[in-house]
Design goal:
heterodimer, A: alpha+beta, Rossmann fold, OB fold (Dihydrolipoamide Acetyltransferase, E2P), six-stranded mixed beta sheet, 21 strands, elongated, B: mainly alpha, MetI-like fold, 2 domains, 18 helices, 0% strand, flat, binds adenosine-5'-triphosphate, binds magnesium ion
């Protein structure tokens, strides 16, 4: 267990600067999730922490020791890779026990530990199999086993579940969550799956183009996104973001024909307004509502989303409604905004408080 | 289009197979019986054509009996065409051999027709059947020609090596084996090579040089290839491309300066010279081949090993080498064959008969005093070890060991 501190880290591949002055503190026992669009440098940052990539600038501290120049093994971290990266020529037992064997641990202690881990991960019956004889989920469990056996200071996960099918992913997600609760080891987890990020994280780090955009708990990121990027990135379905301006306190939506809505604010310079699908109420069209037409409907069983065309620059507004409502397409409806949880953004995309 | 119809396919396949096997079997007849036979392609072409048409019409009802009838009638047709005297042979002595030859020709032609036209209907063919038919035909012809091109010279080589001077002069074309002669006369050339011509030394020398070359080559090229495949270092691009450039320089260009240099340092007439020069020529290729294989392995496995506490050197031994066994075996085999067969440098460098390698030794036989069958026996001795090693290692060459550890 350990705290990890990154101080002013930069990394470039040839001329391509992929990590730009990143500062980050990860507390002891925390579960931190890195999210961000593809190519933003999540894996690179993780590999820098692991010691698999050297860095151009900055320092890394684990438990207040400067480990910047240490080799991966000496940092005492372990990593679970997206491709599992099991040793193909070793069976499950050897794969899990490999790091202990390398460290010169005695055979009987080693096998006792491997069996213990195999029990936790329900791999007891598979110990003699080669990786190619395992299913995706089993391989992933072996990879996790290989990571825990060292009792590392922290776990690093690089999209560990992205090769699994949906049901298995949910199962393994719970498993990882359970393991973290049980072992309490600091974990850093890279994903671009929203649900994984929200459910697993104590703290989410949103990255874009090699920079940290915002860090915070899932609650903070969802409810107080720092700017348009985070607002658009966190939460499914995506937050509705519309161009607007203010006149006489009221917000007007910009479109083919500007529309006044029932939101009033004292904030200045509001240029964009954002609201989630559940902050709008669908009603019959009347004077105090924004008029629109239902264009699409997504029925998900426990909930239902409708996409409404309000004639605002061809943008559809997504609204969550009760799954019990029978939706008629092209029906004229009225939109009424709840007054909480409306996000205002300035011209440059930052949140206005 | 006429060539899209099954009927045309049957005519095409039938006549091609007929003519093809006629050529092959006439050749084989000449080689085994040692008598000049006259080649007549047309008769079998026509017989094959008729059989093809016959087959495509009756394939649904075909039985063992019809197969036999077809082959026998094809054989009889040959006799009818030739008025009972196929190949213009008059001596009744050879008639049974000739009959067997013609029967085999007919049988193999019929079987080939069966394979080619299997499931082909007489009318217009679907695209799948059509492509299948032509590809199968080309594939079959290509395979057989390829096998014959490799096997016939080998056959001639072995048969010549087993003959004595007298029969060779009597009829150089006769490649039949005199089964009645005893072991000693049959293998006379081999015995003489090993007793009078030091071939046991040559074998040992070749083996020694080749094995050491393989060892040195792998010793340097495995770490080198790993570094090129995995590590980032300055001028890597330049280095990896110049490696293959070195290989493009023909050895004939190198051998003269090398001759001068090695003469001056006094190493020329020694096996050590070969052991220095051979790896220098094989390492670039080995490096190139192994680098390709190493890059195809997932680098995340290496990363995992780094996390598990291995150094790069340990990774080479515990991860990279076990995972690339097939590639390393094939590279080793390839290097072994290059060293084993190398002639030019050995010829220029070695003067002392006690340190001759096999290829150099065979060259020394090439004089008017040494009979031709000895030369052939020498060639056989040079070929057999490589073949044995190849057949033995073949099972290691099957790749796919690395699948399963990473996602596909
Ligand atoms: N070995 C490398 N050499 C050169 N460029 C690299 C290398 N590895 C990564 N990059 C570049 O660094 C940037 C960040 O890559 P990284 O793998 O960290 O992205 P990521 O956020 O993990 O993306 P994804 O979600 O697709 O996995 C990318 O632009 C990539 O092209
Ligand atoms: Mg990645």
């Amino acid at each position: 267990m350990a705290s990890i501190i990154l101080k002013n880290i930069s990394k470039s591949f040839a001329d391509n600067l992929v990590i730009k002055n990143v500062d980050l503190e990860i507390n002891d026992g925390e579960f931190v999730v890195f999210v961000g669009p593809s190519g933003c440098g999540k894996s690179t940052l993780l590999r820098i922490i692991a010691g698999l990539e050297d860095l151009n600038e900055g320092n890394i501290f684990i438990d207040n020791d400067n480990v910047t120049d240490n080799i991966p093994y000496d940092r005492a971290l372990s990593m679970v890779f997206q491709s599992y990266a099991l040793y193909p020529h070793m069976n499950v037992f050897e794969n899990i026990g490999f790091s202990l064997k390398t460290a010169g641990i005695k055979k009987d202690i080693l096998s006792k530990k491997v069996l213990e881990i195999a029990k936790i991960l329900r791999l007891e019956d598979l110990l003699n199999r080669l990786p190619k004889q395992l299913s995706g989920g089993q391989k992933q469990r072996v990879a996790i086993g290989r990571a825990i056996i060292r009792e590392p200071k922290a776990f690093l996960f690089d999209e560990p579940l992205s090769n699994l099918d949906a049901t298995l992913r949910v199962e393994m997600r719970l498993e990882i969550s359970r393991l973290h609760k049980k072992l309490g080891i600091t974990s850093i987890y890279v994903t671009h799956d929203q649900v994984e990020a929200m459910t697993l994280a104590d703290k989410i780090v949103v990255l874009n183009e090699g920079q940290i955009i915002q860090t915070g708990t899932p609650y903070e990121l969802y409810n107080y996104p720092k700017n348009l990027f985070v607002a658009g990135f966190i939460g499914t379905p995506k937050m509705n973001i519309l161009d607007c301006y203010q006149r006489g306190g009221f917000i007007y939506l910009e479109g083919n024909k500007d529309k006044k809505i029932n939101i009033k604010t004292k904030l200045m310079d509001v240029k964009k307004i954002g609201f989630r699908s559940d902050n709008v109420i669908l009603s019959d069209p009347n004077k105090n509502t924004l008029l629109g037409e239902i264009k699409f409907c997504e029925y998900l069983g426990s909930e239902q989303f409708v996409y409404v065309d309000c004639d605002i620059n061809d943008k559809l507004i997504v609204i969550k409604i009760s799954p019990k409502i029978k939706v008629v397409l092209n029906k004229k409806v009225g939109l009424k905004f709840t007054l909480e949880n409306i996000h205002f953004f300035s011209q440059n995309g930052n949140r206005i408080h | 289009m006429f060539w899209k119809y099954g009927l045309f396919c049957s005519i095409f396949a039938g006549s091609i197979w007929g003519a093809f096997w006629q050529i092959i079997f006439t050749m084989m007849g000449i080689l085994t019986f040692g008598i000049p036979l006259e080649l007549d392609v047309n008769q079998m072409l026509i017989i094959g054509l008729v059989s093809g048409i016959f087959y495509i019409n009756f394939q649904k009802t075909i039985s063992m009996k019809i197969h036999l009838t077809a082959i026998v009638s094809m054989t009889l047709l040959v006799y009818v065409f030739n008025f009972g005297k196929p190949y213009q042979i008059n001596e009744s002595l050879n008639n049974i051999n000739i009959f067997i030859l013609i029967f085999l020709t007919s049988a193999i032609t019929w079987i080939s027709i069966n394979f080619s036209l299997n499931k082909i209907s007489i009318g217009k063919l679907s695209r799948y059947d059509l492509e299948n038919f032509y590809i199968k035909l080309m594939w079959g012809l290509g395979l057989i020609i390829f096998i014959l091109i490799t096997l016939v010279p080998f056959y001639i080589m072995i048969m010549t090596s087993l003959k004595n001077q007298q029969s060779l002069i009597l009829n150089p074309l006769d490649f039949s084996l005199n089964i009645n002669s005893d072991f000693k006369t049959l293998f006379n050339s081999y015995i003489e090579l090993f007793t009078d011509f030091n071939f046991h030394l040559f074998l040992i020398n070749s083996f020694f040089v080749s094995c050491v070359t393989v060892f040195i080559t792998l010793f340097f090229s495995i770490p080198g290839a790993y570094a090129l495949a995995r590590l980032r270092f300055p001028s890597k691009k330049l280095f990896s491309s110049s490696v293959i450039l070195i290989y493009l320089i023909p050895s004939i260009v190198l051998v003269i300066p090398l001759y001068a240099i090695f003469s001056q340092i006094g190493l020329r007439n020694s096996l050590l010279a070969l052991i220095i020069v051979y790896p220098a020529t094989t390492i670039p290729v080995a490096l190139y081949m192994l680098r390709g294989y190493f890059s195809s392995l997932s680098s995340e496995i290496d990363d995992a090993a780094l996390m598990d506490g291995l150094s790069r050197v340990q990774i080479i031994f515990k991860i990279a080498i076990p995972l690339s066994k097939p590639a390393i075996v094939s590279v080793g085999l390839y290097v072994f064959m290059i060293a084993w067969n190398e002639f030019l440098i050995a010829f220029m460098f070695l003067d002392d008969p006690s340190i001759f390698t096999l290829s150099r030794g065979i060259m020394s036989l090439n004089s008017s005093e040494v009979p031709q069958q000895h030369l052939m026996a020498g060639a056989v001795i040079a070929t057999i070890p490589v073949m044995i090693i190849f057949l033995y290692l073949e099972k290691f060459l099957i790749s796919g060991l690395s699948t399963g550890g990473v996602k596909e």
